[in-house]
Amino acid sequence: MTKILLQGFKNKNVKFGKVVVTDTNPEVLANLKKLFPEVESSDAKGAASQDIVFIALHPPVVMDTLELVKNDVKAEAIVVSLAPKINLPKLSIKLGHVKNLARLIPNATSYINEGYNPVTFASGFDLSEKNEVMDLLSSLGTTPEVSEEKLESYAIMSAMLPTYFWFQWRELADIGGKIGLSDEESKKSIYETIIASLNLMYKSGLSASEVIDLIPVKPIGEHEREISEIYNSKLIALFEKIKP
Question: Cβ(146)–Cβ(154) under 8 Å?
Answer without folding.
Answer: yes
